[in-house]
Structures are given as structure tokens and as C-alpha cells.
Specification:
- It is a single chain.
- By secondary structure, the protein is α+β, with helices and mostly antiparallel strands.
- It contains 12 helices and 13 strands.
- It has 3 domains: about 80 residues, Rossmann fold, CATH 3.40.50.20; about 150 residues, 2-Layer Sandwich (D-amino Acid Aminotransferase, Chain A, domain 1), CATH 3.30.470; about 70 residues, ATP-grasp fold, A domain (Dna Ligase, domain 1).
- Strand 8 and strand 9 form a beta hairpin.
- The radius of gyration is 20 Å and the shape is globular.
């Protein structure tokens, strides 16, 4: 079987994608006699990926162009199977605002928020800040909707910091949002499987000396520590697993996703975001959780390949 690991890309998360792709390539090269190649995607070589006609594409892209449904749509049109979620779930989960709206419609817990447009900010900064504070209080997290790896995320306290944070996050687009600041334990739930039958890995507790699980904490050696299983009570764990599985299904995720929570001291488990192409580096959460469940990294990767091939067969039979 010919497997092409597509990595790199042109998003702000390119460097992490390169690490994920190389880790996947190293894990499955020669596994079961498969022919595995690396493909560093850019805007000039997309045609050559199609011309290669791999049996399956293993997507190791992160961020815009890779995690947002764009390449998924192209591969669907070409009839090439690929790992992870399809177009709609990828697009929904990449946009945190759309994710929140789906979660709210399903009655699933997520942080209170307020949308902020560049036009509103330019027209009246004071009014925008006052609306934000009135809705969320003076401790907020300002976020770009369509960035990952905690890029475009700023914690702010007080009107002056909120103003600076909004200015900074508008670097990433014309619509951003502010969320209430939640105080609690950061945990993550990796899930694999079909939309209708998700399977949860052990809940991971994330410990870091940073203010939150930011880019450096995620990818710098020693920046964070993973506790598996998480040091939470049995009832909280049950809520996280049930909530995570429901979110996975409601959003239409498939193959794999990682759902991040904060166990707030007052509200309990609250969904923060859903990642449909989670990091697969040596320091990433999903491989750690899989190992805790007795699944090696090569076996995990090949499970995702098998999901992709089965999905293609099912589509062809419709």
C-alpha cells in the first residue's frame, strides 16, 4: 500500500506540522511492507500530490489550508482516501466560533463569549471594551477563531490589557472573540473512531509553569507535563468522556480528534476547543494517551489509515 504523509503546508503552524509528519513517517515506514513517502505541501505542488495517486493520504497538516477542510475537499474530489475528519467537521472545528455555536445548540458546556468585529472596534473602542466587560467581567481570554497551537490567544485582565489584547489578536483576522477566563485544571480527551461510535482514550491532565498551555508549553522540551490518567475524581472523568464523545458526534468528527477542557472550579468541565488534526510529535498529547491505553504509536497511525480506507469503501458503496 502506498501511503503519502502530507505535512508542512503554509499556515502559522508549519513548523509543528513538519515535526508531526516526520514522526508519523518514522513510525510507519516499512510497517507491514507499506511504501511510505513524505510530501511537503505548498501552493505550487498540489497537482503533483494528485498525480502521485497514493492509496491513502495521511494528513499531518495543522492550521489553515490543512485542518480547515480545504485539502479534504480536494482529496474528496479526486477520490483519494485521507485520515481524519471530512470537509464539514474540519471546517467547523477549525473555526472556534462555529464550534461554540454547535456546542451551544447541543447543550454542551463551553465558555461564555462575545464576538468582536474590526469595524466595531475601529468605530468605538471604548464601547466595545465596555460591552466585553459587561458580558464577561474584567478577566477574559481574547482569541483568533481560526488559529491553532494557542497562536492568537491572549489572557487579559482589566480594560487596558483587554484593549491591547484585542489589538494584538486582530493581526489574525477581521473577526475575533473574547471568552470568560476560567480558573481550573486543563485536561484533554483524545478520541478515535467513527462519528457514531467514538472511543475515548484516557483523560490527560496538563501541567505547566506557563500561565496556560501556550505554544511554548506545548512544544518546548520541559514546557509541560502530562499526567495520565488525570488526577480528577471519577465523576468528573465520566462527565468529560461523555461530553467529549457527544461533541465529537455532534460536530461530525471522524478518525481522530482531541477535545480540550478546563475543569473550572465553579462550572466543572467546560469544552475549550476541538482539534481534528491534533499534533503527533514526540511531546504531543494523543500519542501519550494511546500508549497509556496500550496502543503503540505505529499501531495508532495504522488504525487511522484503516479508518480512512474503510470510509472510502463506504462512500464508493453509496
Amino acid at each position: 500500500m502506498k501511503i503519502t504523509v502530507v505535512y508542512g503546508g503554509f499556515s502559522s503552524e508549519r513548523d509543528i506540522s513538519l515535526l508531526s509528519g516526520k514522526a508519523i513517517y518514522d513510525a510507519i515506514s516499512g510497517y507491514g511492507g507499506n511504501e511510505v513517502t513524505l510530501f511537503d505541501l505548498d501552493r505550487t505542488n498540489i497537482r503533483s500530490l494528485i498525480d502521485e495517486r497514493p492509496d491513502v493520504v495521511f494528513l499531518a497538516l495543522h492550521g489553515r489550508g490543512g485542518e480547515d477542510g480545504c485539502i479534504q475537499g480536494m482529496l474528496d474530489l479526486c477520490g483519494i482516501p485521507y485520515t481524519g475528519s471530512g470537509v464539514s467537521a474540519s471546517a467547523l472545528c477549525m473555526n472556534k466560533l462555529l464550534t461554540k455555536k454547535i456546542l451551544n445548540s447541543a447543550g454542551l458546556p463551553n465558555a461564555d463569549y462575545i464576538e468582536i468585529t474590526r469595524d466595531a472596534w475601529n468605530n468605538d473602542r471604548v464601547e466595545t471594551i465596555e460591552k466585553t466587560v459587561a458580558a464577561l467581567g474584567e478577566n477574559v481570554v481574547v482569541k483568533a477563531p481560526c488559529e491553532g497551537s494557542s497562536i492568537g490567544v491572549v489572557i487579559a485582565s482589566g480594560r487596558k490589557e483587554i484593549s491591547s489584547a484585542i489589538d494584538e489578536v486582530f493581526r489574525y483576522g477581521n473577526k475575533i472573540f473574547a471568552e470568560e477566563y476560567l480558573d481550573g485544571t486543563e485536561v484533554s480527551l483524545p478520541i478515535i473512531g467513527r462519528t457514531c461510535s467514538p472511543e475515548a482514550f484516557p483523560v490527560i491532565e496538563i501541567l505547566t509553569d506557563s500561565r496556560f498551555y501556550d505554544y511554548n508549553a506545548k512544544y518546548s522540551s520541559g514546557g509541560s507535563r502530562h499526567v495520565i490518567p488525570a488526577a480528577i475524581d471519577e465523576n468528573t472523568e465520566k462527565i468529560i468522556v461523555e461530553t467529549g464523545k457527544k461533541a465529537y458526534s455532534e460536530l461530525g468528527c471522524n478518525g481522530i480528534a482531541r477535545i480540550d477542557f478546563i475543569v473550572d472550579k465553579k462550572k466543572g468541565p467546560v469544552i475549550m476547543e476541538v482539534n481534528t488534526l491534533p499534533g503527533m510529535t514526540e511531546m504531543s498529547l494523543v500519542p501519550d494517551a494511546a500508549r497509556a491505553a496500550g496502543i503503540s504509536f505505529p499501531s495508532l497511525c495504522m488504525k487511522l489509515v484503516d479508518f480512512a480506507l474503510t470510509d472510502r469503501k463506504n462512500k464508493n458503496s453509496l
